[in-house]
């Protein structure tokens, strides 16, 4: 006699609700995830004024920084390396030796950044960062000199005092073709 062994069918898993769970997880992660966005260069522009008349600037208070199509850097018509820009700008703004060819006072110094239409964006940003870095170093030095604290840890009133004494003035001219 032969015994017949009944084979049992393997139990099936109901996958109908798996799609619902996957969909809910997808929605959860989409809602809770923050999406990075490009911020660009943070520059506060002055309000538009149709009655604005240009203020005359003495030549000694103006430092022209130009970048040509070959990404060569010129500072007051003299070729300069990117690494030297920050120190030269700081010296121009503060004028420690009272040189008659440098700015009369730190609150009168104007940096004019001029670039060619073919200048690479990377070169432009590197120079712009050096200019902003020069101001940040000057603000930090002033904070240490007057308040013996880091600039960022000063109260807003003291930061404003320093920024009034050494205002960030970077004029950007329309790109040209050298």
Question: Can you describe what's shown?
Answer:
It is a single chain. The chain is α/β, with parallel strands linked by helices and 178 residues long. It contains four helices and five strands; from the N terminus they run αβββαβααβ. A five-stranded mixed sheet has the order 3-2-1-4-5, with helices on one face. β2 and β3 (78-79) form a beta hairpin. It is elongated, with a radius of gyration of 30 Å.
The low-confidence runs, each spanning 5 or more residues with pLDDT under 50, are none
Q: What does the overall shape look like?
A: elongated
Major β-sheet profile: 5 strands, mixed
Instruction: Trace the largest sheet across and list its strands.
Output: 3-2-1-4-5
Rg for CA atoms: 30 Å
Q: In a nutshell, what does this entry contain?
A:
Helix content is 38%, strand content 11%. With 178 residues, it is an alpha/beta fold.
Write the topology of this structure:
Elements: H1 16-32, E1 62-67, E2 73-75, E3 78-79, H2 82-94, E4 110-115, H3 121-147, H4 156-165, E5 170-172
Parallel strand pairs: 1-4, 4-5
Antiparallel strand pairs: 1-2, 2-3
Question: What are the main properties of this structure?
Answer:
178 residues, five-stranded mixed sheet, 38% helix, alpha/beta, 5 strands
């Amino acid at each position: 006699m032969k015994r017949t062994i009944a084979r049992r069918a393997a139990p099936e898993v109901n996958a109908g609700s798996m799609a619902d769970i996957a969909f809910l997880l997808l929605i959860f992660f989409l809602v809770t995830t923050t999406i990075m966005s490009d911020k660009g260069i943070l520059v506060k522009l002055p309000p538009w004024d149709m009655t604005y008349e240009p203020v005359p600037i003495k030549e000694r208070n103006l430092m022209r920084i130009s970048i040509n199509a070959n990404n060569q850097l010129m500072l007051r018509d003299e070729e300069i390396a990117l690494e030297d820009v920050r120190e030269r700008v700081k010296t121009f703004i503060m004028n420690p030796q009272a040189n008659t060819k440098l700015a009369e006072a730190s609150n009168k110094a104007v940096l004019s950044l001029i670039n060619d239409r073919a200048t690479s964006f990377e070169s432009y940003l590197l120079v712009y960062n050096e200019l902003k870095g020069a101001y940040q170093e000057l603000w930090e030095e002033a904070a240490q000199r007057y308040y013996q604290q880091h600039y960022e840890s000063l109260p807003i009133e003291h930061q404003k005092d320093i920024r009034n004494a050494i205002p960030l003035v970077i004029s950007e001219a329309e790109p040209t073709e050298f």
